Structure formats: C-alpha cells, structure tokens
Amino acid sequence: MKISDRFVIALILLLMVGIDTANVASAQTIPSKNVASPQNIAFESDIRPLLDRYCVRCHGAEDEIQGDIDFRFIKTKQQIEAAFELWESALGLIEDGIMPPADEPQPTANERAQIRRWYQTRFITDVAPHPGFFRPRRLSAHEYRNTLQSVLGLELDVLIREAEQTVTEKSLVMKLLPTDPPGPSGFKNDTSANPLTSSTWEQYTYLVDNGLQRLFAAPHRETLESYVGPLVENLSQDQAHQLIRLFALRARRRSVSDEQLQSSLRKLRDAAPNDLIAVLQSELKAVLMSPTFLYRGLLMKAPRDRITPVDDFELAERLSYFLWADMPDAELLRLAEEQKLQEATTLHQQVDRLLESPKARSLAIHFGVEWLTLDEIQHVSNNPPVADALRNQPIDFLHYLFTNNRPIMELIDSDVAFINAHTAKYYPSDRSQLPKYKRPTGIEVERLPNTKIALRQTPERGGLLTMPGILAMNKGPVMRGTWILERIIGQNLPEPPADVGQTPANRRGENLTFRQRFELHRQNPSCAACHDKIDPLGFALQQYDAGGGFRRSPKYASMKQKTRSRNRNQQSLEPDDLDTSGRLPSGETFQNFVELKTLLVTTEKQRILRNVVQRFLCYALCRKLEPADRITVDAIIRKVSQGDATFGTLIHAVVDSLPFQQTVWKSIEDRP
Amino acid sequence: MTWRIDRRTFLRGTTGPLLPLPFLNLMGQTASGATAAAPPTRFVTLFKPNGVHPPSWNISGGSEFDFRTSPLMKPFAHHKADLLFLDNMGDFGFSSHANSTRRFLSGHHRNTKSASVDQLIANRIAGDTAHRSLELTTEGLFPNQIGCSYISYGTDGAPIPRESDPQLVFDRLFRSPLRDPVRRREMTSLLDRVGDDARSLSRKAGAEDRRTLDQYLSVVRDTEKRLQNLQTQIPNNRNSAGNLERPSAPANLDDQVESMFDLIALALWTDSTRCITYMLGNSNSRMVFDFLGITEQHHYLSHFFRNFSRSNLDSLLKISLWHMEKFDSLLNRLKSYRDQHGSLLEHCLVLFGSGMGHSDNHTATRIPIVLAGQASGRLKTGRYVRYSKNQQLSRLHLSLLDLFDIPIDSFAETSDALPGLSNSDFQPYREIPFESWVRHEKDTITVQGRLRLSDDLDEARVFYVDVENTKAIRIEVAFRDFHDFNLAYHCGTPIKLTGTGSKQGDHFLITKITDLTPLHGNKPGSAAG
C-alpha cells in the first residue's frame, strides 16, 4: 500500500512539475478503476449481506425508506461508484456508533473493519489518478453575459433610472436569461444539470440581435471602427471580412482559418453593396448562435479514450473562465495559438496576470458568493445601500485574500476588514481609520465604497465568521453552526427529520435559558448525531445578536431586556443566554468564540483546508468531484501545506492539477 | 377602417423621428382585421410620485365651468377643454408612501387581494389585442417599502412587473420574431445555419459532445416546428410593422419618457394594446433630476417643510413642473394620432395624478387627480368638479368601471360610485357661512377663520388664518405642531385655533399651537392610511 501511495504521489508531482507531461500522460491508457488487490473485498459477496442484515430494514424495505436512502437500487459498478459520498458518510455513522440505531442489531467489530477495508480499497487505495471524462458545457448566464460583452466589445444594459435605494437589473442578459440553479458541484458554472431550452434559445437570439444592432448603431461607431478601421460612407467588403474573422475567433475562442469561414465569406462577396450590412449581421448572428459559442469545449482536439493534456486553447479557456468567468483575452489566445501556454513558466505568469486584472473580482463575486451563500445577506436589510454594504464586506475581503496571496486561514482569522459608513458601527474602536463621511445635502442614504482598515482594537471581529452580514443572514445558533460546519469545515449534514418541532418554552416555575431548553429538547440520540457538531459552533457566537451586533457588556443585556416583553420568542435576546462555551466532537473545549477561533485555525485547520481545496477544484473544473479526484485534492493540500498555505499557492496548484490540465475524450457512451 | 397619422408627430423631439417614411404609407392604408364599428375606448394612467406643494397645485375658488387653473397646471392648461379636474379627492389625514400608491388604482390600501382598476378594465377591453396591458415605469424597485414601486396589481392582488426600457417595449410590441413574417424568415435561415454547424460537429464528436449537440439540435428542431405552425396560423398583422424604426437610446430621463410616450401612442394607435399604466417614478423616489440641474433627491425635496429653503422649494417645483409638462406631452401625442373617428384622445380615458396631496405631511386629501379625453363621449370634460366632501378614491374607481361597462357592485370597500364624471349630477363644494374673529389675552391668541398655506414661496412653512377686517393671523410653528395638528389637512376650511404668540406691529403671530378645532367637524381620520 505504501508503495502504491508513493507511486501516485510521484506521478502527481511529475505531472505538476510539467516535465514531459504530454509523454507521461499519453503513454498511459485509461487505468481500470477497480484493480484487483489482495485486500479487495467484493461488494456482492462481502458488503451486500451486511447491508441486508443491518441497513435495508429502514433503508430499502418495501415502504420504509428513511433519509431518502434506498440500498436496493445500488447494484451496478457505476451505481456503486456514483454513491461514493453515501459510502463515506455511512462509514462515518457506523464507526461513530450512530448507525444502526442503538435498538437495532449491531455489526461486530470485524464486520465494521470489513466495511472500512472495502471503502478504503475501493475508493482510496485502488483509485488511480484520472482527470475525469471530457464534457462540453453550456456557458452559465453570467459567463454568457461576460463573453458576449467581450466578443461585441460593448455592454448590453437595460435603460432604467438607478436611484439610490432602488434595486435594478442593469444587464439585459441577466434580466432575460433564466437564473441558473447551482449544478451538482454547488456552483452555477456547473451547468451539466441545466440543459438548453427553446425559451432560452429564443432569448439568446433576442440578445444577439440586440447586441448587433447596438454595434452597428451610431453611438458605437468607435467600437466598430476599432475592429475594422475608419468607416468611409459604408462598410467595405474587406472590412466585412475583417469583422467576421474577428468575431469567429472571439466567439469560438480559438483560431479560425478562412477555409472554415468560406461559406460566410462567399455570402459577403455575393452581397449587393446595399445588402452588405444585413448579410454581415446575419452571418455574425449565426456565429453567435452556433453551439461553438454557447458551449465550451466542442472544438477541442484530442485523441480518444486515453488521458491526454487538453489543447492550448482549451487550457486558455479553462484559465480565463476559472479566474475571470469570461473568455480568454487576446494575449491568452495568442499564447495558445503559439502553443506556449503549456509551458509552466508562461502558464504561471498568466495566472498571476489574470489575478491582477480587475476581472479577477469574479472569483469573489461568483465563486465566493456561491460557496458562502452571500446572496442571503441581501435579505438582511431592505435598504439597498445598507444591504450592499453588508454584502460587499465579505466580497471585498475574499477578493483581497484571493488576489493578494493571503494565507488561507485568514478566512477565519484576519486583522483586516472592509468597512464603510453603513458598517462602521460594528467597529467602534477602529472606525477612526475610515475617512470622515459627510452625507451630501439632499441625499438621504447612498451606496458607499469600502475602505480597508486594520483591526487593532476589535478582537471580536476579523475573519468571515464574525462579519455582521454573515452573522445576520444565519438566524439563530443552529443555523450559524450549520453554516460553519457545511461551508467552512466542509461537512455535509442530512436534512433534519420533519417532526422535530419547536423548542418548548419555559413551564411555570422553570427558569432555563434557551440553550438549556434546547439541549433538553435535542437529547434524542438521533438529534445528537448532528447537533453535537453544530451546537458548539453556533452557541459560541451567542455574544453576537441577530443583527450581527456584539453584546459588549452586561449593560447591553439590560438595555435589550426592555424590549424583551415584545420579543419574548426571540431566543437571542435573552440576557442570561450568554453561555458561549462548548466542546468540539474532537474533545477540545473553549470558553468563547475567540478561543474557538484558535481551535479552528489549529486543530480544525486540515479539515478547513480540505474543504477550501475541494470547493476551488469544483469551481475550476465546473463539475462535482469524483473518487479519482481525491488524489488530486490530497496532492494540492500537501503542496499548499508545504508552502505558505496561501490562496495564491492554492490557485496555482489547482491550475497545475491533473484534472485541470488533462482530460479523457470518451468515444462511446457507457451503458446506463 | 382607415388609420391616419398626423405628420406633425414626426417633427418632434430630440430623439429623432420614430417612424421611417415607409410607415407613412399606412396613413392611408386600410388596416386589416378592423371593422367599421366604433373604435375601442382605451385606458391610460400616468402616475406622478411624491405629491405636490398644495398652494401651487390647488385651484382656488371658481365653479364647475368658471375656474382658473393653478400655477402648476400651466404646462397642460391649454388642454383645458379636454380635461376634467377632480378636487377634494382622498380622505386620509396621513398616508404612507406605500399605502397612498396602492390606493391610486386599487381604491384602498387594504384592497390587497383583488386586481387594480386598470387590470379590471384591461380584462374587459383587451379583446384580441396582442398585449392585454402594458405596465411601465422609469426606475428600479424600492425594496424599503416595496409598495411604492407598483400601481398595477393582478387578479390575486400581486404586483405586476414593470418595464422601463423603451427599446425593449418596442421590441415586445413590434419585433416579436414569431409574429413578424420578415423576422420569421430570418429565424428559419438562422436555424438552418446553426443546425448545420451542430450536425457537422456531431459527426466528429465524442460521446459527451454528441449528447450536448443532440440537446442543442432538439431545441433547433423544436423552434423550427413552432415557426412552421405559426406560418399557417398567424396572418399578416398590422402589429408586425417591420418597417417601424426602433427608438434610439435616450440621453436622459426626459428623452426616455418622451420615447415611451411615442410607444404608448403607437401601441394604442396600432391597437396592440388598449390599457397602459406608466409611473413617472416610484413614490418615495430618490431620483436625482440632474438634467434639470438639481443635485438633491426628489423625496428629500418633497419634504419641503422639514427641508425648507427657497432653493429646495424651487427645485421641488421644477420637478413637479416637469411632471406636468410630461402630462402635456402625452396629451399632445394622443391628440395628434387620428383616424376617421377623430383623435386617439377622444377615444381614451387618461387618469393623471398622485397618491398624496401635501408632499411633506403626506396628507391624502385634495390629491391631484385629472381625467383627460372623452372616452368615446362618456366623459364630459372642460370642467372643474370640486366635491362637497373628501372622496375615497375607490368611488372614482367604481365610476370608471361603470364607464367601461363593467358590471360590478362594489370595489375596495365602496359600493357608491362617484357622480359628476359624465354630467353635473354631483354636489359641489360650498362653504357654510361662519363668523371669523381673533382674541388676544396675554400671550394666548385664539382665532376663528379659514386656514390657508402661504402662497409666497419664500415662506412655504407659514400658514395664515384669514379673519374679516383684520390682517391675516400668521402661524409660524415648528414641524411638530404642523404635523401633530395636521395643518395641511385643514387648509382651505374654517377652524378655531388657539396658540401662543404676540402682536407684531400690525398683525398677530402664533408660534405654538395648543388647540385646533375644525368648525364643521371635518377631522383627519385617526386610522393609519
């Protein structure tokens, strides 16, 4: 086992260093995913009987399907592999003694070990590195918006007055295209589960018409002339050709020959001078409605059925959509054309260049917002300038971490904050660093940019977890704890049972705090399974009120108490509710959130790192991770940990990773 | 039926002509589908946000046929013969922005489960027009009080999304690829082209690529099929005027609104729709009218008592005058589009107005409401109708429903329609005679007389009580008193007022109010409105 591990690491490192990458990879055919091994335990002979004995009574018997898990339907090799996350969580529950429930027959120690060995072999040890199969992907709405804008060189906006305190959708694309649901990876750029529909197709045609109309209208004459040179009277034949070449290059995001364009060029040549613009527009429209524009990857060239590096243009696209959510710019396209992008030095220079561009803000705006559910902050205040201020805090912070090569653990613990006049009240001792703001006469509330300040005397802030918007968007200790567990530590929790009910109020004569009543309420072992993990995290934040404010002193409590009669049911306003101590499942204890934060950046560091790496990889690959990706994740974690564990190192490592750089082009469909 | 268009329409504005010459041919052309029967009556609403400065808006004195328009009405006063001025509309002492906006077309702010009056009318008159109604606006949503952003509500009382971009409205009205034969042909050839692209890729594709391309091709085929079906179903239609020129991108709010008016007139004239509501802004609007040289937000300025300065008030009046000019502009458009039955305006009912009267105190009395157009002879214009009592807006709405032959007994808690729209069967406002006097004892002054707001713009915070044979008693109080005793509500009516003050030369000055009693018992409702 040791040897095979070492071999894998060596292979990964080899691939990352990029020495002769192509040769190493192309020499290899697709490895079988399930190599026989001395410890191999077959599912049907060794695992199925255990499932039948201990699990299916609740998870697969006739009409009792608990937790939406039905083991009867996992039969084929594909189904077993597709359920890898299920096996992982099942193993955890079995080893923690939570499943099967205490009043059911229990597996023996040997049987448990047998399950563990099967999992270990099947999903860790015997999994060979594999980049995942190549799959073309439709642009998500925001990628489409950015790409169309880059091709046309102009923005499609909606005419609407933007008064302060109103919300408007300025982008015509975002207004007309349906909102993308997050894909299986949890990110919107994973459009694999979101097929093209006729109505979307119609919106595309409308948007393209709209864009071309603008390009040829007087106000955008300069843009058009920047593509084809000065216009005399009308567009000339040459200029029309020039434009179709430029658009085809941009829209296909790879070089294109006149031969490939011959039908368009012929139509232009055949057009009467008066019709030239109309013909050109309809040819341009065809380019922008072609699947090669709407999808990524349809034009990639690669040998079939073996691991192979993606071609230069595909690599350029992967890079630009990862860091910019936009098409490659001229420099990337040129490097791809010259086949220089695969050179490690060039590639890493490009990563740095892309990260320095203002477009790299898309990492925070899309990746960051979707990962951390920051759109929820919009509901915290119905005053848009205030809601914006609260939401922009974590976005500016993430942008700073991602693009300034900050340590990953600064997510949790940082001495920097981004504030404006709307959020300054949360930083009373450090707000003096904010330039004085004087509201202009006659303006009631306005949107304001953030200023970066150093947190010198605000120990209660710093890091994502105590940002007011994030505290306020998660209502109550359970939601706060769940969010930290899922989004930061990376542990997926099952849905709570439907019949949990409310935490009962104090009965006459009882004087229990919310926390005490809540703990009584969830003593049931099946609740404890998750709540032992959630509650310590959530209750540690009890010193922050529902709006994200910090309860500074006992005086705060007595002040709040006045409103108590009106808000009797608001758990967070109870003054005696400030028991912020807790114990993590690992055994460490803490007295308050500051101590918990120390634990998070030390003992929990590995888990948080793993989560961050997985999220980055999902977003960069636009797909859910598979068992084979575990090797990549481990390798990235190792690489990041060896270095300074910064976001910069992480982003470079993701770009270097096997699935980012390589692929397998599958010629035959698997049997379903 | 013959549609004719006035050539003057094309000579307007900074945004250039809307219609190219080929369209002029339509002026003599017989439109298909229309019969020689009477033309439809249309309903158009123009909403002006944030109330008014009452002394500048209110008509003082006069009678039904003999009255002078107010300073703010000046921009559209030349349409007097086509207008019906309604006064004493609204019956709430105070009103929030959101509630007053809801009431504008829904009658009562508690009427949250039924459609607004425009939608009920649209249901009745839409016939087979392509668009049952259009809901238009100029600015984004105001989430702070979301009710400020809507006047039109659907059957379940849910707000109807609004559109603000003239180009998008134009495309929706006249460019639907599925309605227009030219666009249909273009679409068909595009489908051929991209279908070929996809098929040629598919021949070289791997498994995953092929799955994606199949998805794409099935959408292409689906669209082709629908186009074929349409070709057989929809005959050429005058909505599909492929030769109409799209409005160009406007430079500022004024251009934007003018473009929208072009489209409103054109949409009605081509019978694409018969019901349109248009908000010149959200109530509570924070818009900055930079193109008028104003740097403060509209809502801030509208609170002209609290934020008084002569220049603030001037800015507010400038904005209000602009709103009035836009109403004028809409009427000009509707008059210039004609057919053999006369102008569009003759077959329109236009409702123009705001949700509140006094813009600082949010008094919902004497709300600006003007009706325009003859509604095919149903509305008797050229009159000033001041009702004897404050009227609920729902009564007006019930009358409008009646006017459009909608059989409905009650609307928004009213079953009593408002008289006076089609004839003079209303009870006009008459002042009951009363005695006026003033008494002065130490620093306490008691005065009985008619209250009015100063019409001197330099002292917009000052009120007067007129007393016979004496110089008017001047009332100059803090916002608290102005608000608590609701001076704005009692303006124009006789009251007895006691306060602290002194004699200043030849007149009395009251600086603190201790009591205010209306002589005829008119009291602002205590219920929050």
Topology:
The complex is a heterodimer of chains A (672) and B (529).
Chain A: H1 2-17, H2 21-26, H3 43-54, H4 77-82, H5 84-95, H6 109-125, E1 137-138, H7 141-152, H8 172-176, H9 198-215, H10 221-228, H11 237-252, H12 262-270, H13 276-289, H14 291-294, E2 295-296, E3 307-309, H15 312-324, H16 330-337, H17 344-356, H18 361-371, H19 384-403, E4 416-419, E5 451-454, H20 468-473, H21 476-489, H22 514-521, H23 525-539, H24 554-561, E6 582-583, E7 589-590, H25 593-602, H26 605-621, H27 629-642, H28 647-656, H29 658-661, E8 662-664
Antiparallel strand pairs in A: 1-2, 3-8, 4-5, 6-7
Helix pairs in contact in A: 3-6, 5-6, 9-13, 11-12, 11-13, 15-16, 18-19, 21-23, 26-27, 26-28, 27-28
Chain B: E1 3-5, H1 21-24, E2 42-47, H2 54-57, E3 83-89, H3 97-106, H4 117-125, E4 134-136, H5 166-174, H6 181-204, H7 207-233, H8 253-269, E5 275-279, H9 298-302, H10 310-336, E6 337-339, E7 342-343, E8 348-353, E9 369-372, E10 383-391, H11 393-403, E11 437-441, E12 444-453, E13 463-466, E14 473-475, H12 479-484, H13 487-490, E15 494-504, E16 507-518
Parallel strand pairs in B: 2-5, 2-8, 3-10, 4-5, 14-16
Antiparallel strand pairs in B: 1-6, 3-9, 6-7, 8-9, 11-12, 12-13, 12-15, 13-14, 15-16
Helix pairs in contact in B: 5-8, 6-7, 8-10
